Amino acid sequence: MTQKAARHLDAQTEARIRESFASQTLMATFGASVTSISPGSCAISAPILPGARQQHGAGHAGLTFALGDTAAGYAALSLMPEGREVMTVEMKVNLLAPALGERLVASGRVVKSGKRLTVVTAEVEAVTGEEWRLVALLQGTMIPVDTV
Amino acid sequence: MTQKAARHLDAQTEARIRESFASQTLMATFGASVTSISPGSCAISAPILPGARQQHGAGHAGLTFALGDTAAGYAALSLMPEGREVMTVEMKVNLLAPALGERLVASGRVVKSGKRLTVVTAEVEAVTGEEWRLVALLQGTMIPVDTV
Amino acid sequence: MTQKAARHLDAQTEARIRESFASQTLMATFGASVTSISPGSCAISAPILPGARQQHGAGHAGLTFALGDTAAGYAALSLMPEGREVMTVEMKVNLLAPALGERLVASGRVVKSGKRLTVVTAEVEAVTGEEWRLVALLQGTMIPVDTV
Amino acid sequence: MTQKAARHLDAQTEARIRESFASQTLMATFGASVTSISPGSCAISAPILPGARQQHGAGHAGLTFALGDTAAGYAALSLMPEGREVMTVEMKVNLLAPALGERLVASGRVVKSGKRLTVVTAEVEAVTGEEWRLVALLQGTMIPVDTV
Questions:
Q1: Tens digit of pLDDT for each residue in D101-131?
Q2: Which residues in C lie closer than 8 A to residue A116 (C-beta atoms)?
Q3: Closest by alpha carbon to D16, among D69, D74, D88, D68?
Q4: Do C53 and D93 make contact, defined as CB atoms within 8 angstroms?
Q5: ipTM of the assembly?
């Protein structure tokens, strides 16, 4: 179902993604980092910081969404040529379990990279020790735009 | 289309909402506050803080989503009896314009409050001076749960 | 929130919409007809035919979706210049009540008509005598394409 | 990510699904049939009948949605005890390519079957000879209800 793609991302594209990610201040606020990138995929990991919670101490849906949306966006960007970036058109999230654990890992994936739009999905898992638990599933659309 | 509802929220329900909101640390991180509540509706306002941005300095989609989702959740909660609260089952957001401005105002609204599920929508607007610009539209589902 | 728009659709655009609708065989199968069109809005009405039901005799979610999606699509098309039409990029539906009644009326509306994408919503109501009941709410994205 | 599940469905559950499917008149109108069922999965196949098309002769989005939603619903039902069935709460579809081919095959899958809600996905593929092409991706929520 995914795009056929090389296993490794070229160094230039990876540099573009890491630079873009580094300039997203929300990702810094959440303590998030890119843990893997390959063509059509991107994983982001973040702790559930004290300042990112809902009323019962679990990670806020806004945190879960932000990580999933961002992982999906960089998965889409990994297939874009230089001078192009992507913006989220729309994104839907189903929340499956409370975001509780040592950290959240969001894994974004390109389903179809078209000329005009890219369709993406993402899973967000809560990790505690060796245990991974799926907490959210996202499905959405990215649009390529010229880099400003 | 909305629920027929009294104009004013009883003091107890309003207190429950404000207390719940105050315990969402993500809302504090975003500098957000509840600006109005009535039965079936809730508005939340937040600045676009330096730490809540995407790579070009606009508000991150995660910020927009978090405000819209939270406004929709408290709109749903405003129709719940004591001892009940709500959780987001799923939420979809369409992003219409970059989140740029002095602040974002998210207005949540109950479309249907059923026994088992509540359907909600929210609009997020970017405000600059007298100008209000729609930046996102959300539609989703909340589920009532017993207060822990 | 809607686009500022003239009250009446010009005759040419209305003719284009009615011609396109007439060539959608699924709409004929469902016995559907366009009941009103204006710039940025379109309403479609259909009976709940014996051949369009789910296992308990209510209208199938596929019927409700098809009417809502089509009304939203023609709402979008009503704002397009000649030589352009629209396709659905994505659409989300929340089902609020069983589709039971004499007929369903789907009302589509443009929220934002941009150069590259149009964001739409639709409501589907079940009508029995004088009673109108909201059965579904849709939110989605249309993309303009050149007419073939 | 899927539920751990036995490979084969017990005969009683399979009979319940086939009986329910047979009473969905829309599925008969579309010439659809259940081609496989196992615990947590269901596939439905249908031709793109002359009466189920959009204005350019491709399968209507309402057809694609109906097949995907129904496959997802029966995937959910396959994990329900006797006396329970499911209804669609909400469903989102991303359309990836025109529904053109000899037939459409919708494959539904349970992501999480909870006590109160079941989260599902579905893929719809267009099949021509040996070629399978992904045309739509769905993600949604089903709710268990007592059989009437």
A1: 999 999 999 999 999 999 999 999 999 999 9
A2: 116, 143
A3: D74
A4: no
A5: 0.95
